[in-house]
Amino acid sequence: TGKEVWPKGDEKVWKAGTRGVDQDVSDITKSFVNHVQTSLARQAYNLDDLGAYQAAALSVRDNLLVNWNETQLNYTRKAPKRAYYLSLEFLMGRTLDNALLNLGLKDKYRKGVEQLGFNMEDLLEKERDAALGNGGLGRLAACYLDSGASQELPLWGYGLRYQYGIFQQLISPEGNQLEAPDPWLENQNPWELPRLDVTYEVRFYGQAERSGSGNGRAAWTGGQEVLAVAYDVMIPGYKTKTTNNLRLWESKPKRGFDLNSFNAGNYEGAVESSNSAAAITSVLYPNDHTTFGKELRLKQQYFWTAASLQDILRRFKNVGKPITEFPDYAAIQLNDTHPTLAIPELMRILIDEEELSWDEAWKIVTNTFFYTNHTVLPEALEKWPVPLVEHVLPRHMQIIYDINLYFLQAVEKKFPGDRERLTRMSLIEEGYPKQVRMAHLACIGSRKVNGVAELHSELVQTTILKDFVEFEGVSKFGNVTNGVTPRRWLDQCNFELSDLITKTLKLEKNVWLKDLTKLEGLLPFAENKAFRAEWAAIKQRNKERLARHVQTTLGLEVRTDAMFDVQIKRLHEYKRQTLNILGVIHRYITLKGMTPAERKKSNRKVVFFAGKAAPAYYIAKLTIRLIVNVARVINADPDTKDFLQLYFLPDYSVSLAEVLIPASDISQHISTAGTEASGTSNMKFCLNGGLLLGTVDGANIEIAEEVGESNVFFFGHLTPAVEDLRYQHTYHPIPIEEKCPALANVLNQVSAGLFGDGAPYEPLLNTIRQGDYYLITDDFDSYIAALAMVDEAYLDREEWIKKSIRTTA
Ligand code: 475
Description:
Blueprint: H1 11-17, H2 25-37, H3 49-78, E1 82-86, E2 90-93, H4 96-103, H5 106-115, H6 120-126, E3 130-132, H7 136-150, E4 155-160, E5 168-171, E6 177-180, E7 192-204, E8 207-210, E9 218-221, E10 224-236, E11 243-253, H8 259-263, H9 267-279, H10 295-319, H11 326-329, E12 330-335, H12 342-353, H13 358-368, E13 369-372, E14 383-385, H14 386-392, H15 394-414, H16 419-425, E15 428-429, E16 435-437, H17 438-444, E17 448-451, H18 454-462, H19 466-472, E18 477-479, H20 486-492, H21 495-505, H22 509-512, H23 529-554, E19 563-568, H24 577-592, H25 596-601, E20 605-610, H26 618-635, E21 644-648, H27 654-660, E22 666-669, H28 681-687, E23 691-695, H29 700-707, E24 712-715, H30 719-731, H31 736-739, H32 741-752, H33 762-769, H34 776-795, H35 797-808
Parallel strand pairs: 1-4, 1-12, 4-11, 12-13, 13-17, 17-18, 19-20, 19-22, 20-21, 22-23, 23-24
Antiparallel strand pairs: 2-3, 5-6, 7-10, 8-9, 10-11, 14-16, 15-16
Helix pairs in contact: 2-3, 2-5, 3-4, 3-6, 12-13, 12-15, 14-15, 24-26, 24-32, 24-34
This protein binds N-[oxo(pyridin-2-ylamino)acetyl]-beta-D-glucopyranosylamine (475).
GO molecular function: 3-dehydrosphinganine reductase activity; glycogen phosphorylase activity; pyridoxal phosphate binding
Subcellular location: Cytoplasm; Endoplasmic reticulum
Catalytic activity: sphinganine + NADP(+) = 3-oxosphinganine + NADPH + H(+); [(1->4)-alpha-D-glucosyl](n) + phosphate = [(1->4)-alpha-D-glucosyl](n-1) + alpha-D-glucose 1-phosphate
């Protein structure tokens, strides 16, 4: 800006001093030792792997910091339009390996730590995952940050700095999921910078008094005031100096404690407000695809959107433009409806504080926000009880009512007399209590609305937001199919394959890792026998790496001369892990019925499951229990254990996915048609040469268009049939014995105790016997047929490897 003022000293000395760690191995070892002795205050003689990891991380961080500073200064000077990604979840995983690869310093650091007597792979394993998310939505946010920095875009993320991330999953001897806390900040986190000077005040409760002068303004006073403190996480781009920022807010009491209460001898009273302020960012809600309507969750949402908006506005004001130009300088992407309170909050700031008129404010708001929907499942659509919003955010409730009034007036004008339409579209759902429909608010307050895969975006427009498309026009609605970062999900997790691709394409690695269309160049090599052998050998070594991981973490022996079949995702009825486990049982029963000679001819298979269930999701937890107990029986059966093995790997995480995905031959994406918005692991498997077994759902469809239908195993009913089938289940049910005898037999065997007492599973089995909302009885036969086709295809090894190569290509 030209407004910077240098300290009195010599500017040249300052500039000469500005650098990261020099990039020779000797500089790296110096920096490492320096951090051991100063930052960690430790000695060489008792330094363990954890300490060595921390020293390496601090040293790498020095490099990132220099780039981060330069990037931010550049943004300030150039004042470009900035993009902000508001997400309650960022499922980042580990950072060190990713940072080393992005900086291009991995080999040098490996040499450096080796010279100091450590092994790089051991150090990398010491890092805890930053697991501030549940699943797909949170991981997508992390991939977007990587992409934004790699493409040198001025993109910042905003989220919450939870003290506890997603719970740690333990499996009891009976096979039940137990939850333990995830104190990920127990060791100091080298990847964040506390910005104790960047703080904002956020208010809750209190009174909202309309001004009475008819200008729509109000004064919001009283209640509880909480402080938001910024923590910055550096987001390095790939092979660029651009290092973006993820700003996470921590809540803190505005005053340490209330001195008056303390002096009056009321010690509990003195710290009470401090306890509840800190509670706001203490823990990530572990629910995926459900909402609970809890006050603390609402406070999290408001705390985070209010702090982020204040920060964004302050930055905008530094540019010195009139407030009406705000949308030319900031675009705010809402990751699902979780940050939707940003819409009434920005209205409140513009009207009550900036003193704009309603219309001026609404114009700015509706040009600033963009809303991404991630699911059409009704139980996941957020609704907040009006009395709760009125209590916690009285001014926002007024504004929401005002938005609704003007909105419904406009609808009435376009569709006169259509009362039902008004009821359907209202921001307020009638009932006891009334509820605010957040998807409606996000939709009308945004400039664009998108779904996350073609089918899903179509469903958004024809189901949950149909009336809004009719009212606002279809051009506001679109599709942005999800993607994944190939840096983490290929180069980092499958470095051997990445090297082979680089060698084969005869391109610099950074060229194809920034332009994946280049992978098409692999296609002709599917016909090259020597290349296929190399390709297959890498898959084999990835299976062995996974087997070693299972051996060291669980003490179990996994055979690697088998097809690896993987389903890893949150446990949910719509994702149909139940269909998969019932298929495994069917295979087991079939194998048991074969002669030894017949068995020998069958395809050997190892089936892996991993995934967490929401702590209160009873049916999902029963599915885990069934998987674990089926595994116990199958893996111990001498008749079949050479042909079928089954594992439930506890505590699924980003880091575990990085080991599982490269080892997969076939992975399962088998949601009931129309329920999985996109899926993103499907893309990761394909990138790593894994084939898909799936339904015609989410991004599976677009993947098949790219890799070719012959390389994807599809089965099951299509989306348009689903509604009808559900109707049939309710009004013309057919007994399972008649409709699907193979499935009936499997269910009966479970009930009869083939895997231990069947009684605990009855509630799970009954979801299929009665109602069968997710269409297991309709899809089971075609699922088994598809599995048979997978077996047949796999037995032709050379052909399978060709498919694998073509899938990546
Ligand atoms: C979809 N989470 C995937 C992925 O777009 C898709 C909902 C409510 C409350 C808390 N969490 C949620 C989701 O809705 C979610 O994770 N959706 C997922 O988003 C990225 O690939 O198909 O299920």
